[in-house]
Amino acid sequence: MRMVDLIEKKRDGKALTTEEIQFVIDGYTKGAIPDYQMSAFAMAVFFQDMNEQERADLTMAMVQSGDTIDLSAIEGIKVDKHSTGGVGDTTTLVLGPLVASLGVPVAKMSGRGLGHTGGTIDKLESISGFHVEISNDEFIQLVNEHKLAVIGQSGNLTPADKKLYALRDVTGTVNSIPLIASSIMSKKIAAGADAICLDVKTGAGAFMKTIEGSRELAQAMVNIGNSVGRKTMAVISDMSQPLGFAVGNALEVREAIDTLRGVGPEDLTELCLTLGSHMVVLAEKASSLEEARQLLLESIKTGKAIEKFKTFLRAQGGDDSIVDDPSKLPQAPFTIELPAKEDGYVSEIVADEIGIAAMLLGAGRATKESTIDLSVGIVLHKKIGDKVKKGESLLTIHANQENVVEVKQKLYSNIKISKEKIEAPILIHEEITL
Ligand code: URA
Ligand code: CA
């Protein structure tokens, strides 16, 4: 086989065979196929797309390019959740303990954040003593014992995806449904999930800005998962504004604690209940979504969910007293309000720009090497549709310095107030199954 022939075949809109796709991914991973040929190939896929079989083949070729995690020693159906991007997305922190409290095993491999989207590990590391540097054996033992553990990304998982994603980033080929879908799904499958619950964001802060694009991406991932034997479903949720109120690491831990206690923001709570119900059903711990939701609500009400969070923190060295006393979490020395400049209704809170503002405060990494300040961030007081009076605070900035002029300017230019009444955006657009 010759790479140039396969590039031409795809360029001319023909479908590649399983063996041909394996040849491309295997050759690229090993370095036998150079970046310039792979760039041409990615561009051909970008314009010609891939059929369902090719997408599944590409996903599995990337899974097989490196190590895979064997979670078979964990009892029960391992359900993984994945949210595509998002700003101030605290769902993983809430969902882990919440579904684990119903006996669903959650074996979470997680990463640190890059850019304006926070990583779950960064958030958890704002808890004194908590660490994710555990061995695979310890990880499996913790999940069997407590139904929940988080481990850092380790080993050589989907090296083909790592290499290809970096190449796509500089060749204008990121925004391709088959390439995004196979990239995300290969990582979930390599990490050992039996079933996968996807949270595909839509709107200004999301990867996909339109509902049509999000639906297409969600359907592509659902099809791939199910065609390779992983029960997969997707929810399309709003990311036109940040989820919940808090954006920033320790601030989001506080928000997760509130939500696990049943006093969290309405949108975050609702999304967690929706995703959680699907996870519980996928794990066969309830026979219907309604039953699953009732069980989750009960777990919040009785304190089972928050107790599970404490147990999980202790098991990984974390100080669980922060749950009852969140003032022990890292706190920024300065809190600065952002008063509304006029009366009206909040009509826009551009999610990714709010994320970038939090990053400028020090909450996110501009480059992989940046160190982050776990205490800083933004807490919204108003969301889209809320009425606001001139002078009333729109949000609180938690900063490590007094001068936040630049951040304030960015926030003002990305929060719009309208004279007319505005409806709150729809939170859950669609639920997509096979
Ligand atoms: N996230 C991924 O992991 N891969 C993509 O291609 C896009 C977003
Ligand atoms: Ca949040």
Summarize the structure.
This protein is an alpha/beta fold and 434 residues long.
Tell me what you see in this structure:
Its EC number is 2.4.2.2. Catalyzes phosphorolysis of the pyrimidine nucleosides uridine, thymidine and 2'-deoxyuridine with the formation of the corresponding pyrimidine base and ribose-1-phosphate. This protein has 17 helices and 13 strands. Strand 4, helix 10 (211-227) and strand 5 form a beta-alpha-beta unit. The protein has a 4-stranded mixed β-sheet, with helices on both faces. Strands 6-9-11-7 form a 4-stranded antiparallel β-sheet, sandwiched between helices. It has 434 residues and is of the alpha/beta class. Helix 5 crosses helix 12 and helix 5 packs across helix 14 (304-315). It folds into 3 domains: 3-48, Transferase, Pyrimidine Nucleoside Phosphorylase, Chain C (Transferase, Pyrimidine Nucleoside Phosphorylase, Chain A, domain 3, Up-down Bundle), CATH 1.20.970; 79-324, Nucleoside phosphorylase/phosphoribosyltransferase catalytic domain (Pyrimidine Nucleoside Phosphorylase, Chain A, domain 2), CATH 3.40.1030.10; 330-418, Pyrimidine nucleoside phosphorylase-like, C-terminal domain (Aldehyde Oxidoreductase, domain 3, Alpha-Beta Complex). The site of calcium ion has 9 residues, from strand 6 and helix 11.
